[in-house]
Amino acid sequence: MDGCPSTPLFTFGVIADIQYADLEDGFNYSRTRKRFYRSSLQLLKNAQRSWAESAVRPEFILQLGDIIDGFNKGHGASERALDTVLREFSVPAEVHHVWGNHEFYNFSRSALLRSRLNSSALHRDRDLSGDVYAYSFSPAPGFTFVVLDAYDVSLLGREPSSEQYGQAMDLIKLYNNNDDLNCPPVLEGLQQRFTMFNGGFGQEQLDWLHALLTASDDKRDRVTIVSHIPVHPGSTDPICLAWNYEELLAVIRAHSSVVCYMAGHSHDGGYCQDKDTGVHHVTIDGVIETPPDSDAFSTVSVYADRMVLKGEGRVEDRVFLFPS
């Protein structure tokens, strides 16, 4: 960390894919990976304790989606499970909740907008439609964070009569002819992403992001984008990639202000630096597939020229130098 002052400008915590349920351990959809439903709550408590005891407490927490597991819905336990998890966010810091596929397994979009998982209330942008869950906030002068809605165009959480649902069905059917749309259409390659548990970014949201980044370019702000689904093929298993990742990457690449894109969804995590722009794409390892004797969270310290991610357990330490 040569050249870094000892005290960061600010710090923040990051955690992804908690997927808590009051159930015995189980397996993922393809039954190849073990999932630790109950102990995910203890791993959240470990993260909260670490953040609370930090010499520099985080200004905010990024919860990158899938806070409770979809199995709760079938047990009539969605509200109870959500209450259980939210009680553990005890650090006195604002929590920014991202929405993933498991939020939509448990709740409708309209219910989420009315819920405690809607953290946009203080940051709402009137240029966006009311049900697109995207907003920005600035924790310090010169720094902007943008939360994006990766299920804007989706078969999850959208009414079948809606324009977004129709767009999603038309798109997925171009590539996936399976009866079960959660089954990938191919076994290898980027086309695996056309499954029902993924989604995409609508044109209105892309236009809004472009306008926001244009203003950030002019101000020479450092922008970090966060969403549930990764958008760079180098940062994730291709089965967990956003449907229209190329469109979002094109917006990012058209602007100088973006320094980092953070996501969850792919439980093994991932990282790459875009060779054209220098933007860092990091996918945070999922709590749900982390054994009880380990951890999966991180604390990020932000300096004038870099962000330093200190990982715990499965999450690797990383330094993100800002593109010049």
UniProtKB/TrEMBL annotation:
Q: PANTHER family, alphabetically?
A: MANGANESE-DEPENDENT ADP-RIBOSE_CDP-ALCOHOL DIPHOSPHATASE, PTHR16509
**Names of the cofactor(s):** Mg(2+)
Root EC class: hydrolase
Report domain Calcineurin-like phosphoesterase positions.
11-268
Name the catalysed reactions.
ADP-D-ribose + H2O = D-ribose 5-phosphate + AMP + 2 H(+); CDP-choline + H2O = phosphocholine + CMP + 2 H(+); CDP-glycerol + H2O = sn-glycerol 3-phosphate + CMP + 2 H(+)
Q: How does it assemble?
A: Monomer.
Q: What is this protein called?
A: Manganese-dependent ADP-ribose/CDP-alcohol diphosphatase
The protein's Enzyme Commission number: 3.6.1.13, 3.6.1.16, 3.6.1.53
The similarity comment for this entry is: Belongs to the ADPRibase-Mn family.
**InterPro entries for this protein:** Calcineurin-like_PHP, Metallo-depent_PP-like, MPP_ADPRM
Report the Pfam families cross-referenced here.
Answer: Metallophos
Which GO molecular function entries does the Swiss-Prot or TrEMBL record give?
A: 2',3'-cyclic-nucleotide 2'-phosphodiesterase activity; ADP-ribose diphosphatase activity; CDP-glycerol diphosphatase activity; manganese ion binding
The answer to keyword Zinc applying to this record is yes
Keyword tags: Hydrolase, Metal-binding, Zinc
